Amino acid sequence: MELRKIGVLTSGGDAPGMNAAIRSIVRYGLSQGFEMVGVERGYHGLLRGEFVELTAASVSDLIQRGGTILQTARSKAFATPEGIESAAKIAKDYGLDALIVIGGDGSFRGAQKLCEQGIPTIGIPGTIDNDISCTEYTIGYDTALNTAMEAVDKIRDTATSHQRCSLIEVMGRNAGYIAIEVALATGAEMVLVPEKDKNCPRVQLVNRIVEDIKAAQSVGKKHHIVIIAEGVGGSQELAEMIEECTEVETRATVLGHIQRGGSPTIKDRVVAAQMGMRAIDLLAQGKSNRVVIIKNGKISDVDIDEGLAMKKTICEKDYNLIGYLSRSINNVGQN
Ligand code: ATP
Predict the structure, then answer these.
(1) Which of 14, 97, 105, 129 is catalytic?
(2) Fold assignment, 5-140+264-309
(3) N or C: which terminus of the chain has fewer CB atoms within 10 Å of its end residue's CB?
(4) Is the pLDDT at 173 greater than 90, yes or no?
(5) Ligand 1 test: best mutation among 9, 10, 11, most atoms within 8 Å of CB?
């Protein structure tokens, strides 16, 4: 089939760098002779035929902006057999020959189903959590890490002044990637991640933290930073329990959506540009139902079905390193 008109949408949670990816897809797509179309508000907008023609000018002044100009949404109506069928018909009637979907695993499942309905699709991983198994990296992750790191550094300053324990909740419903890297980067004393601690009774978590605080106090530490992934949650309740047990002033801070926003880092902009190009090249080569990925540090791609079946888990070495670094500091009696 001759490819003429290519659509692009962003779906699921937004991530810094999605705009840079849209810009790359549109400008590189135009350079390869394709007509480029944006679908606003993800699959929700596709079901409503919210198409917008994209030119080189319509993606100008975009590379440095967080969020997504196409906006994003979650759509239950789309994820039904009728929804998929209807969305595919709307796309075909509009004359879309292919669709590039920037989002997470859920968005790729939708792309896979659209492909079954005769719309060639390519997925680009865009989510701050880095929780897509088939790729080493997702657009938005580096920016979110840096935002969280800067926030923790600030909280650390005041925690040290007041000799407080600070529980800081970062994003990651099912994955502890942000939590582990931020804990490593900020010199946190401890990290709690869904992969290990989601089903752990609260009392046990509190006991672990209390033990750690006592050990740190005995060597003169002036603060205690615990990074908690969103999926473990309950930081406020944990803080109250810890303060009761230790009499150490304990505060919980939920960083929340601040981690989703902001200007993308250089890494996110560069990866977005490269992934956008790969998506267009794949379509131009007649390929579809594939996800653009980073493998061994390089741009690559994988079949969506295979990609969705893959499993990825936290790096145990990094997880353990947080404990070693915190403890070895204790050993030499420094803060
Ligand atoms: P994030 O990682 O930011 O949550 P995501 O792409 O995984 O991103 P989801 O909310 O899971 O976010 O999925 C986005 C949209 O994709 C859903 O609102 C739905 O319309 C569609 N979708 C999700 N799962 C399926 C599925 N199994 N079949 C068809 N469509 C799906």
Answers:
(1) 129
(2) Rossmann fold (3.40.50)
(3) N
(4) yes
(5) 11
